[in-house]
Structures are given as C-alpha cells and as structure tokens.
Design goal:
Elements lengths: L17 H20 L2 E4 L11 E5 L2 E10 L10 E5 L2 H7 L6 E7 L8 E4 L2 E4 L3 E6 L10 E5 L8 H13 L3 H5 L1
Parallel strand pairs: 3-5
Antiparallel strand pairs: 1-2, 2-3, 4-9, 5-8, 6-7
C-alpha cells in the first residue's frame, strides 16, 4: 500500500480513485455524526445533484441542506483561522434558490487513504480527520466566490442542535409578527 502523499495507484480490487474515495469518506463522516445525533440523513443520488447539495439532514420540523467537500490538501493543525474553498458559478446560482438553512462542510483527511481509519482490538476509529462548517447565504457571493469556513466551527455532535435551531427559527414568528 502507498505510504507517501503521492497520488495512490488503484489496486486490482479497487473501483474508486482517490478523489472518489475522499468523497465517499466525507459522506460516511457526516452520516456518522448524523447517526450519533439520531437524525435522518439522506444522500443525493448520483446524477441527481441538481441543487448542488449532497445531503439533506432531517428534523421533525423539516430539513436542512448540506454540501460536503472532502480534501487532503488542507491540514487539521494549520494555524489559519479559515479554510477557503472556491465556489463554482453554477453552485452559487443553485444555492441562491434555497429557502432553508444551507451548510457548506469541508472534511479534511490525510492524503493517503490507508490512514483514514485505525483498526485495533478496541475497535475502529476515524483518525486524523475533522470537518468544519459554515452556513451559506446567497448575498455572501456578491463580492467573492471564496467560501471561508472558520476552523472554530468543527462539525461535532454539538453542531446538529445549532443547525436544528437555525431551521426552527425560520418558522418562529418574531415579536412584531405575533401581533399582526
């Protein structure tokens, strides 16, 4: 198995190149957190990614949308305050139509897929992997196509209640609306 940061060669049994494996691993990572939180998590079927959204996270009141990108080019222990990702024009156009909370998640993994999981007698663990999130708003793309994801916003079990609150707040009338 490769042990350097060079692109990995496909082994005879493998069907997915490194980029496809990173994408699948990002899905599994987010699915694990949703499972830990007890939330439904629906992945967009291949070929049906018409909204530039990979996943829908279900709550009793409704759903939020999540776009996930997985990368090995960024480091978990970097000193930068933000991880940056360039949005494509077609994504921005699609995201502008979304009326529910929409989150962009970057999952950071090591460059060699052999090190994504550790298997030992105590169980299997995801290692050297972390995810970071930011809520997207259409107006943020008026001046830049760069998505800045704060390192302070790690995707953890505690993220899910925050996303739930964002959704519920869409349906909660403000004080002025209650009087009307």
């Amino acid at each position: 198995m490769p042990t350097t940061s060079e692109p990995e060669a496909l082994l005879p049994f493998q069907q997915l190149d490194l980029n496809a494996r990173k994408g699948r691993f990002g899905v599994v990572y987010m699915r694990a957190i949703a499972g830990q939180a007890g939330c439904g998590f629906n992945e967009t079927s291949p070929g049906e990614d018409t909204l530039a959204v990979d996943h829908v996270l279900d709550f009793p009141e409704g759903s939020v949308r999540v776009q996930v990108k997985t990368t090995a080019t960024m480091a978990i222990d970097d000193d930068d305050e933000y991880l940056s990702f360039s949005a494509e024009d077609k994504w921005i156009t699609k995201w502008a139509r979304v009326q529910v909370p929409l989150y962009f998640v970057i999952v950071v993994v090591p460059s060699v897929s052999d090190s994504w999981l550790a298997h030992d007698v105590n169980g299997t663990q995801m290692v050297k992997t972390a995810a970071y999130w930011v809520r997207l708003a259409p107006e943020q793309f008026d001046t830049t196509k760069t998505i800045k994801v704060p390192r302070a916003q790690r995707v953890t079990l505690e993220t899910i209640p925050t996303w739930h609150t964002d959704l519920v707040n869409l349906y909660t009338p403000t004080a002025g609306e209650e009087a009307a």
